[in-house]
Design a protein that fits this description.
- About 40% of the residues lie in helices and about 5% in strands.
- Among the domains are: about 230 residues, Lysozyme (Orthogonal Bundle); about 60 residues, no CATH class.
- About 15% of the residues have low confidence.
- The strands form 3 sheets. Strands 1-6 form a two-stranded antiparallel sheet.
- The chain is mainly alpha-helical.
- The protein contains 18 helices and 6 strands.
């Protein structure tokens, strides 16, 4: 079924993007990017240490540990920021200054994941501004889904996600898995930096694609123009994308200059990854970890259903402070009790598809659970089927419940429920009900290209 509204032309609010500065890896004059596309225009940084103590005694100085994660991020900046700020960056910065409440919300959403992402960037010697990129992409909302079918805090589209190893199936969407998608995003950005030799160009390509940026560089070179990001003719969204990140970076660097107070985040791990070894009901896992089911889904947003996927990944993210009690609970729980099962007697005329729909599962899951090599089943035989331990409402952030919540959210206008018929298309339904295709898809947490 699809939910629709009549007499309402407002578009649901989408997450906004933001700019930032760069990180430790700097462009090099012999990089692939410079040979293939352009001159990077990189900035050289010379480090000079001034000291009033003999050099021989410097080794005895104990460095003061950084306790503030924001300071660790600032210390790792590596993308050159123009001074004064570029006009486009200043325009984006002005918006953030006027919306401190938005900054507060984003910081709270980022809190569980930010230290992990900073760690990953540091291990790769990448610019710490990239830790702020999910603010631009998704507002650090793990369940963010765009009209262009991009998902997760890093907003991967399906095709790019698959290229970078993110599994996407009925049970699981790696684009929303914070651990998997962070690794994929950093792999992709490193690849783009290798192509272009400049972080701003790499970020622009992350937003609009390598081809778009490469062609813009070639046009400028042919015309004898500069080939840095600010000189390129790029799509409007991309032209705002990098300035948004640079604006966020400047705001984080000196929030006091803009009367902004960043809520403190400790420079210590918040989460840890636990290998659970097999499929497990997420409500049960939450009980074992002594956290709410909501929090379990927020930390593991890649899982679409009531349980982890049967064929992996067999890992769960839990708060570090809950790791021991969770592992103790897992050890005491027999593997067979991690998922509840029901015994179904096959009736005349039933198919695996009909049975799967009844139990809100898939044919593949039933076949795997019962060792079936084909879709052929016989009346009177029994099938074992994994089922949720609770009601649908006990899994409020599963894919089906998120859709139900969105469809039931009060909005202006009259709501209408339409039952999709064989052969229907998004355009047919939208046209028949005098609404836009994008609007209709958005109301139903879909994209216009999704299968009905």
């Amino acid at each position: 079924m699809l939910a629709m509204l009549a007499g309402c032309n407002s578009t649901p609010t989408t997450v906004d993007n933001t700019p930032t500065e760069a990180g430790p890896k700097q462009a090099t004059s012999d990089g692939k990017a410079l040979q293939a596309y352009s001159q990077s225009g990189e900035v050289e940084y010379n480090t000079m240490v001034e000291t009033s103590v003999p050099v021989s005694e410097l080794g005895n100085i104990t460095p003061i540990p950084i306790t503030d994660l924001w300071q660790r991020i600032r210390d790792g900046y590596g993308i050159p920021q123009s001074k004064p700020l570029h006009t486009a960056t200043q325009q984006q910065l002005n918006w953030f200054i006027k919306h401190p409440d938005y900054i507060d919300r984003v910081v709270e959403r980022a809190r569980p994941y930010l230290h992990y992402i900073v760690d990953q960037l540091e291990q790769r010697n990448m610019p710490m501004e990239i830790a702020l990129l999910p603010i631009v992409e998704s507002g650090y909302q793990p369940f963010a889904y765009s009209h262009g079918r991009a998902a997760g805090i890093w907003q991967f589209i399906p095709g790019t996600g698959k290229v970078y190893g993110l599994k996407q199936n009925w049970w699981y969407d790696g684009r929303r898995d914070v651990i998997a998608s962070t690794g994929a995003a950093l792999d992709y950005l490193e690849k783009l930096y290798g192509d272009f030799g400049d972080w701003q160009l790499a970020l622009a390509a992350y937003n609009s694609g390598e081809g778009t940026v490469g062609r813009a560089i070639k046009r400028n070179r042919k015309a004898g123009k500069a080939t840095d990001f600010w000189s390129l003719d790029l799509p409007r969204e991309t032209s705002a994308y990098v300035p948004k990140l640079m604006a966020v970076a400047d705001l984080v660097k000196q929030p006091e200059n803009y009367n902004i107070t960043l809520s403190p985040i400790d420079n210590s791990p918040f989460l840890t990854v636990v290998d659970v070894g097999s499929q497990i009901d997420l409500a049960l896992a939450a009980q074992l970890a002594e956290i709410s089911t909501d929090e379990m889904y927020q930390l593991n947003p890649g899982f679409n259903r009531w349980a982890t996927t049967p064929d992996g990944p067999h890992r769960l993210v839990v708060p570090l402070e809950k790791a021991d009690i969770f592992q103790q609970g897992l050890a005491a729980l027999p593997v067979d009790d991690r998922v509840q099962w029901t015994r179904h007697k096959i009736k005349s005329g039933e198919s695996l598809g009909v049975i799967a729909k009844h139990y809100k599962t898939t044919v593949a899951v039933i076949k795997e659970a019962n060792g079936l090599g084909s879709n052929n089943i016989r009346e009177g035989r029994h099938l074992l089927i994994p089922i949720a331990s609770g009601e649908a409402s006990d899994y409020p952030l599963s894919a089906s419940q998120r859709l139900a919540t969105r469809q039931n959210t009060p909005r202006r206008g009259n709501k209408k429920v339409y039952t999709v018929k064989a052969g229907d298309t998004w355009w047919d339904i939208a046209n028949a009900n005098n609404v836009g295709v994008r609007q209709l898809a958005s109301w139903n947490s879909k994209a216009p290209g999704d299968v009905l």
